[in-house]
Amino acid sequence: MKKLVFILTAFLVFTNVNSQILDPVKWTTKIEQKSEGVFVLTFNAVIEKDWHMYSQFTPDGGPLAMEVVFKNQKGNFNLIGKAKESKTKTAYNDIFEVDETFFEGKAQIKQEIKLTNSKLNKVEVELNYQVCKEVCINQSKKFTFQIPAAKTAVVAPIKKDSIKDSSVANEKRVDTIKTDSVVPSLGESNVAEAVEKVTLPESVPNAPRSLWSVFLVAFLFGFTALLTPCVFPMIPMTVSFFTKQSKTKAAGIRNAVIYGISIIVIYVSLGFLVSWIFGADALNALSTNVWFNIGFFILLVIFAASFLGAFEIMLPNSWANKVDNQADKGGIVGILFMALALAIVSFSCTGPIVGSLLVEAATNGVIGPIVGMFGFSLALALPFMLFALFPGWLNSLPKSGGWLNTVKVFLGFLELALAFKFLSNADLVLQLHLLEREVFLAIWIAIFGTLALYLFGKITLPHDSPLTHISVGRLGMGLLVLTFTIYLIPGLWGAPLKIISAFPPPMQYSESPMGLGDSNVSNTKMDLPDGAKIGPHGIVVFEDYQSGLAYARKVNKPIMLDFTGYACVNCRKMENNVWSDASVLPILNNEIVLISLYVDDKRELPKAQQFISPTTGSEIETIGDKWTDFMISKYKTNTQPLYVLTDLEGNSLNTAKPTISYVGVKEYYNWLKAGIAKF
What we know:
The chain has 679 residues and is an alpha+beta fold. It has 18 helices and 18 strands. Strands 3, 4, 6, 7, 9 and 10 form a six-stranded antiparallel sheet that branches. The protein has a six-stranded mixed sheet with strand order 11-12-14-13-17-18, sandwiched between helices.
């Protein structure tokens, strides 16, 4: 069915898109003074129908996020927070396996600045963004804001914003336009990278669904926290205290309910404080901030070591003693302090869980941590209230014992596995390729394989009780973990592993993007021509035009130019669905020389090779700039994927249709055969 939808969609793509420079976003700007030395810069965008423009906060690993670059900031002004955005939408991208955040119809970006230079008369800003429909475009627009001469009062410098967006999009951004106009003209759309967009569901934003998911996950983790040795023994003790110390049964129930509500208030207040202190912009930026991801990786490893028994993480005993003294006063205030005492005493077990939840929930903005803490605390509080209502249920509770430590160790393994997700985020952002898909999966296989051995009783840890046998429940959980471990193993050979698709790096971020055992990969590095590499489906591909041209002349074959991008969604769709077809793949393998030119390649050209484009007037500074300029100047388009069949002199072989883009298998096959026949 998906393939049918893909083919139908492909045939609906307009055929003239490759013969024009597209500019689907029109901008206007204004500057307003908020107070002495403080100004608000506003960018208003009108987006053409059916196009999407991506937010600053769309996650790493997907389409390119917007970047707001202040060109003359140093020594002139400071930013007050991060640029704020108008309402966005969210939809899942099944190619990059992330939730994209984007604008439709219109967008507004606002940035407050505080002047530090009394002689400053203008602020220069560059917006780099991606806009998508059936095809996608990377655009770079420059704006100049004139500071009113009478209002350039200087204020004391402030510290720069501590949260910086370090997303993959920033790494892949391509600088192009270098002009000074306030409202860019059509000629400025020297577009850096064209990325075809996955078809988004025509629905309202899925933020409510995401928040509901946050609540459910937090609720489940709250129940898990109940089963730790720090919390579980407290249930019968606390409920018995309320039922025995209260003068009537009704009073005991009331006090237990107040106790449960107090737990909820404490944790929800924590979520509120996190949101209030950091704010929505900072919380959204955290998910793509390199240092945050590295820091949280280290923190989770420490938490995991604590859960596994290396040491205990505890708040100072003096805190608990002071809270206990307040609890002795009785009344509602005393009950509130009893709940606070529970939070402090159980911190060594609940702290790592709460920390993980807060970070994950923070990606949903201000409301995320509040919803997450409500779900967690509700699960934590419910047993205290229910057992107060039905005290007879206490007799059915299992006795405390070694199984509680087993739960804690189980959580330690989960924390350790989750830690590598954050390290993977940082690696993806920096494009270091140190934690590629195979390495990530190997680490998870080792972690969950060890967990299975632990559950089967083959491994013991410091705080484990002597084990003469394993329970049926523990055996069942061990079998489940072992099954999951075995499920991960084929991922090393290219299996998609859809159950955990949101966790490991994407398939293309891999030592062998088509899998270690791909039968199509018949070439080794020793067999490859100079300058070539193994591409999708084992196709030999060049990423430099001159190297590919030299090889094509040597073997006397036509050239297929593939204008593509590292973050190009529909480039990946064409490779996965069209190039892999049994009728197309042999042609790409045997009848042409493939040259893939990445327009978002951020590697800088040697100074001697940098130039000003005679076509667009843009500064060509990177490899991606060079291929972008080549595409625009020769083929008059700025969209990808773009395919061109040429002879050895660079002339197009398909005279009727020189270029082709996002199409189905049949059209692509016929286009290839027609061009090759004229070589």
